[in-house]
């Protein structure tokens, strides 16, 4: 059962009835549901992908929550709180989806705070300026949407359903980010400078969110065969850039890629060379804020322990009391 | 059989959440969450799943309390209705064109 | 692969919900008189400062579900603050942001209790428990204010603070009767907060000029006391005895905490006078 399973039913390997059923469902673009039989590799790949995604939402709260207390207007403060709160919600939807595959939230959280789990390395970049709230919304949430819209049709039912909910909420995130930048670009020289500086810092990391180039992406082919991934990294990255260029023009902001140009032949925007060494550095945990992000998550978890225990103890006492009353 | 995801090892148990989006509609499963007890579970559900006025009523059920049909017996469990087309109005074609039927 | 979304707009599969948007701020037909504006500042500043404090919990709560819950409370409160400050500003032609970001400490009118730091979760819950019970009694009565704008703001706010009251009550019960540690922390928090309760119900002279418009704080005390009594009894908590803090928030004499809070809240806005965000 360790051989690579492809949905290609003409494979000559003898397979079991349930495996055949699984392959048929994938082939028919149907959905796999929690209690269906599934290959162990499929389950593991999903738990990895979904939990990493959930962790990213949770760690992703931090660079933005930094600015909640300093948001420059009450309206922006309210929007930012609602946005960061949404990210907590996204984490929760996704942990639930992973939980249907037998992973517990406690275990996933332990792995995260022990530094054993991955999350999107984009959140290891700092947010020193208010304009970063704009860039995160426009570029980071924007890239996330490109990645995630196809996942709404992921073959695993609970994952796809969580993604539908998340994508709806994400469109608010991207728009509010765009608006922050637009407001800055229409403001004072200092504000414009703030916006440009921020986009300069976030543009390349956002492009790297789509993952390494296709010829260097080990898990992609299998994930695409299983339809837990629908498009290649490069394909999605290209789409994203095509979308950004006209938006940047509306903002009056310069995308920091001198080689960016329109290719008449392909009708696409060709981009310059991505510096993957930085990506691998950040991915390896050497991003500017890795340690800080994990420490903060760990602190919140550790400091909350007595509260979680208190509520659990209270629940036990209450149900013991109810049982006593029923018995007497 | 219990719902996947429920684990006795967790400090707060898992709850399944159902939301009625409007009067006249059924409660529909929307996802799950953790809570120490039913009182907080229903409040967490309100906070998490109805932030954008998605619901007028919320149910929470301990994931452990849900019994599912056995998926391995899926074929046998849901085979019976197949072929019993006479349960569907569209089976009766001779009355076509007759009003109010 | 039967992918049909490759040509479609990336947003194509997830339509943005078309919804009718409610009014963001509750606005009335009239301009506030100076006295009404001052009163609106009292209430608006309380909500603003409390919201600012709760906002700092988001991403630091004891459990993710609680990040969301505290976020909802903070969002309700900032909504109340915006409507109240907007209304207060109509008297002097200032915006909600002028009032939030460009006043200095002595011009704030917040109560000392909302200025008390978040502390541990028990302190935040104790503060929520006291303030949301007070706000519930306040807004219940303010719904009948002769001032239409205040009445409208109160009518919306009362439903929201009713939920905050419930949220904090649930946690007071759990912390007080959970583990030994949580009980100890709950008792400490309550006794740390209690000196600031008295100020809430003091009648500042301004109240005399707002008969029928404002709610006289002292009249809320009996209802407040009888609302919290059964919760404290169930939680087996006693009302702490001890000193009564001198207060003075309504006349601009604040705790040490407020200056730090304002410095953080206002820092960016003040670095860019005249900018819009
Ligand atoms: Fe998200
Ligand atoms: Fe987002």
Model description:
The complex is a heterotrimer of chains A (328), B (101) and C (277). Chain A has 328 residues and is mainly α. In chain A, 65% of the residues lie in helices and 2% in strands. Chain A has a two-stranded antiparallel sheet with strand order 1-2. Chain B has one domain: Ubiquitin-like (UB roll) (Roll), CATH 3.10.20.520. Chain C is mainly alpha-helical and 277 residues long. Chain C has helices at residues 34-55, 64-89, 96-102, 112-115, 121-142, 148-177, 180-193, 197-200, 221-234, 256-271. Chain C is globular. Chains A and C meet through α3, α4, α7, α10 and α12 of A and α1, α2, α3, α6 and α7 of C.
Care to give the gist of this entry?
The complex is a heterotrimer of chains A (328), B (101) and C (277). Chain A has 328 residues and is mostly helical. Chain A has 12 helices and 2 strands; from the N terminus they run ααααααααααββαα.
Order of helices and strands of chain A: HHHHHHHHHHEEHH
Characterize the largest beta sheet of chain A: strand count, sense, and whether it forms a barrel: 2 strands, antiparallel
Tell the overall outline of chain B.
flat
What's the CATH C level of chain B?
Answer: Alpha Beta
Low-confidence stretches of chain A: 1-11
Into which percentage range does the β-strand content of chain A fall? under 5%
Structural class of chain B: alpha+beta
Summed up, the helix count of chain B is: 2
What's the CATH topology label of chain B? Ubiquitin-like (UB roll)
- Give me the strand/helix succession of chain B: EEHEH
Low-confidence stretches of chain B: none
Number of strands of chain B: 3
Q: What share of the residues of chain B does DSSP label as strand, in percent?
A: 15-25%
Tags for this entry?
heterotrimer, B: Ubiquitin-like (UB roll), 3 strands, C: mainly alpha, disordered N terminus, binds fe (ii) ion, 1,2-phenylacetyl-CoA epoxidase subunit B (chain B)
Write the layout of secondary structure elements.
The complex is a heterotrimer of chains A (328), B (101) and C (277).
Chain A: H1 17-27, H2 40-59, H3 61-65, H4 74-99, H5 105-113, H6 131-148, H7 157-185, H8 189-208, H9 220-225, H10 233-251, E1 261-263, E2 268-270, H11 276-286, H12 290-327
Antiparallel strand pairs in A: 1-2
Chain B: E1 14-20, E2 27-34, H1 38-49, E3 57-62, H2 74-77
Antiparallel strand pairs in B: 1-2, 1-3
Chain C: H1 34-55, H2 64-89, H3 96-102, H4 112-115, H5 121-142, H6 148-177, H7 180-193, H8 197-200, H9 221-234, H10 256-271
Helix pairs in contact in C: 1-2, 2-3, 2-6, 5-6, 5-7, 5-9, 6-7
The structure holds fe (ii) ion (2 copies).
One fe (ii) ion is lined by residues 87, 141, 170, 173 of chain A.
